[in-house]
């Protein structure tokens, strides 16, 4: 390396410095005086140019708008008022599969800011607060979310933001986008920034404080750690998807029913249709995934004895997360199911592993021809129906092998779209999604849009209610929002006392319940759906013998 070598950082950001050697002599002889002089002049010229026009190359961060580069991702929390935030070093903007929604969030955030700073008339001036949406904003087939699921989650939150901002409440919402990493482990920069924005002083109009967070979708240790950190900062957080009852924090609220509630819904279904009680348990062996380990424990506790699951089970390596062996190798499980002539299969695994199990069952010779005699029911806990399962190919395979799935879920898109036992607010939600985001019909069936819609709704409703008791110029604090959520209650005889009027139905919260929703619907969703199908009445969390909530 020579003194004339100049270090620069490429304008597009490659994550490292590179050097440019400005003058290269011919090999075989030493440089003469003239060459030395030219080399020195060239080096000096390039150094001056780098200083004057390229100094940003030396200081430029590959991640803009306050995001930090960690493990090849741009993580942290941004206000999304720029049209093209980069979630990967060197890229021009977000993933093109959901970039349109990021741009729309940015547009709405700018409108909200301008409604306070530059109103058309003083009478139209509206103060605003901020909500942080914490998701992995880089898609991955083996990470926490695919591009499709990020799109659906973001669309649901955005539609809820528009709804809140169109309400005649005198207060608007900005939605900040927080990238917490593909595998959810890079949450610290976003949470630290959220704590800074929440502040500790009494907020007044114009302060635009952060009043809550939402997201934290998977039941993993990283979600627990992030929820604990938010709670330590007194920030209320609402998860639309998380379902393990082992993930808890003081200010961490959930919108989905937990695994124990879902397994209870399955038990109620099997009480009416027990089958031949030839059971089989298939489970993901990744110990770090609390969703699958907790679901497995709940299934064994409830059905282990009756369905002989202690001696009739197989494990596999799940798709999600870092490579730990051949993922979704479920052939052994399919063979065990077919050789034991099992009719009731319990699956403790992620959505994207289910199609592989169906495929292997369809290939097993001993499972052929069972359609009419004894169909194989696969029972599981889910948010909704994964689009990977509902393809024409999967449906055909399931029909050939006589396989049906029974999902104890947070949502039942197919039934609700057909008007069967649909919550009162589902139709307005579906109409808003089609109008504001372009998502409609089967795109709503995985449940990601509606659950994030309801998660935002919890925070927005709490802000509206808390603002009523404050002075004219004062804005709610995070403490006000948390306390209001705790008092969103469902009383006996389905009496709503400040409860959440969600698109998934009315629900509330109660003390000593780990901040899980009370009176939450847990439908058992069947797929494929037979013609003229009528779904069973949905179980509701904490349902009493009289059918009232809470029990």
Question: What would the keywords be for this entry?
Answer:
551 residues; alpha/beta; Rossmann fold; 7-stranded mixed beta sheet; 6-stranded mixed beta sheet; 21 strands; disordered N terminus
Q: What is the makeup of the main sheet?
A: 7 strands, mixed
What structural category do the secondary elements indicate? alpha/beta
Instruction: Give the total of beta strands.
Output: 21
The tally of domains stands at 2
**Strand order, sheet with most strands:** 3-4-6-5-7-8-9
User: How big is the Rg?
Assistant: 27 Å
Describe the model:
The structure is a single chain. It is built from 15 helices and 21 strands. The protein has 551 residues and is an alpha/beta fold. The protein folds into 2 domains: 68-257 and 423-518, 3-Layer(aba) Sandwich (Rossmann fold); 260-409, Response regulator (Rossmann fold, 3-Layer(aba) Sandwich). Strand 12 (344-348), helix 10 (354-363) and strand 13 form a beta-alpha-beta unit. The longest helix has 21 residues, at 33-53. The protein is globular and about 75 Å long. The N and C termini lie far apart (76 Å).
In brief:
This protein has 15 helices and 21 strands. It is an alpha/beta fold and 551 residues long.
Q: Topology, pairings included?
A:
Layout: E1 6-8, E2 18-20, H1 33-53, H2 55-59, E3 68-70, E4 73-78, H3 99-117, E5 128-135, H4 147-166, E6 172-179, H5 188-198, E7 210-215, H6 221-232, E8 237-239, E9 252-254, H7 259-272, E10 279-284, H8 290-303, E11 313-316, H9 331-339, E12 344-348, H10 354-363, E13 376-382, H11 392-401, E14 403-409, H12 413-417, H13 426-436, H14 448-468, H15 478-486, E15 489-491, E16 495-497, E17 500-502, E18 505-507, E19 521-522, E20 524-527, E21 539-540
Parallel strand pairs: 5-6, 5-7, 7-8, 8-9, 10-11, 10-12, 12-13, 13-14
Antiparallel strand pairs: 1-2, 3-4, 4-6, 14-20, 15-16, 17-18, 19-21
Helix pairs in contact: 3-4, 4-13, 4-14, 7-8, 9-10, 10-11, 14-15
């Amino acid at each position: 390396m020579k003194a004339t070598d100049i270090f620069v950082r490429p304008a597009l950001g490659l994550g490292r410095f590179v050097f440019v050697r400005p003058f290269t002599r011919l090999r075989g002889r030493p440089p003469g005086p003239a060459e030395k002089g030219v080399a020195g002049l060239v080096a000096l010229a390039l150094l001056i140019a780098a200083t004057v026009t390229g100094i940003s190359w030396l200081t430029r961060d590959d991640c803009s708008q306050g995001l930090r580069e960690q493990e090849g991702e741009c993580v942290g929390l941004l206000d999304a008022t720029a049209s093209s935030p980069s979630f990967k070093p060197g890229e021009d903007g977000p993933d093109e599969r959901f970039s349109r929604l990021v741009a729309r969030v940015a547009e709405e955030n700018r409108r909200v800011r301008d409604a306070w700073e530059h109103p058309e008339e003083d009478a139209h001036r509206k103060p605003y607060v901020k909500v942080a949406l914490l998701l992995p904003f880089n898609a991955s087939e083996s990470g926490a979310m695919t591009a499709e699921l990020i799109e659906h989650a973001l669309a649901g939150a955005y539609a809820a933001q528009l709804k809140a901002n169109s309400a005649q409440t005198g207060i608007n919402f900005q939605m900040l986008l927080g990238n917490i990493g593909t595998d959810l482990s890079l949450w610290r920069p976003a949470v630290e920034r959220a704590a800074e924005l929440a502040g500790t002083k009494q907020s007044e109009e114009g302060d635009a404080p952060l009043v809550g967070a939402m997201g934290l979708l998977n039941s993993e240790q990283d979600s627990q750690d992030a929820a604990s950190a938010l709670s330590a900062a007194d920030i209320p957080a609402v998860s639309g998807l998380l379902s393990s009852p082992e993930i808890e924090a003081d200010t961490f609220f959930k919108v989905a029913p937990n695994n124990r509630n879902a397994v209870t819904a399955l038990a109620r279904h099997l009480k009416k249709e027990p089958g031949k009680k030839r059971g089989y348990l298939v489970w993901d062996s990744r110990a770090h995934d609390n969703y699958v380990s907790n679901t497995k424990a709940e299934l064994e506790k409830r059905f282990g004895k009756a369905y002989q699951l202690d001696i009739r089970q197989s494990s596999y390596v799940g798709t999600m997360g870092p490579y730990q062996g051949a993922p979704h190798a479920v052939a052994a499980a399919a063979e065990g199911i077919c050789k034991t002539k099992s009719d009731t299969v319990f699956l403790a695994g992620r959505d994207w592993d289910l199609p592989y199990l169906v495929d292997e069952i369809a290939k097993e010779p001993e499972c052929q021809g069972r359609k009419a005699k004894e169909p194989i029911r696969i029972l599981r806990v889910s948010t909704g129906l994964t689009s990977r399962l509902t393809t024409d190919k999967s449906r055909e395979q399931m029909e050939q092998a006589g396989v049906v799935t029974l999902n104890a879920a947070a949502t039942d898109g197919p039934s609700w779209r057909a008007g069967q036992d649909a919550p009162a607010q589902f139709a307005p939600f579906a109409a808003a999604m089609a109008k504001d985001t372009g998502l409609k019909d089967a795109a709503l069936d995985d449940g990601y849009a509606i659950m994030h819609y309801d998660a935002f709704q919890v925070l927005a409703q709490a802000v509206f209610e808390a603002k009523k008791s404050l002075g004219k110029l004062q804005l709610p604090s995070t403490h006000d929002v948390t306390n209001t959520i705790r008092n969103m209650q469902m009383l006996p005889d389905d009496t709503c006392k400040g409860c959440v009027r969600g698109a998934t139905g009315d629900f509330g919260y109660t003390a000593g319940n780990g901040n899980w929703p009370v009176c939450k619907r847990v439908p058992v969703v069947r797929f494929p759906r037979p013609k003229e199908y009528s779904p069973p009445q949905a179980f509701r969390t904490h349902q009493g013998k009289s059918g009232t909530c809470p029990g």
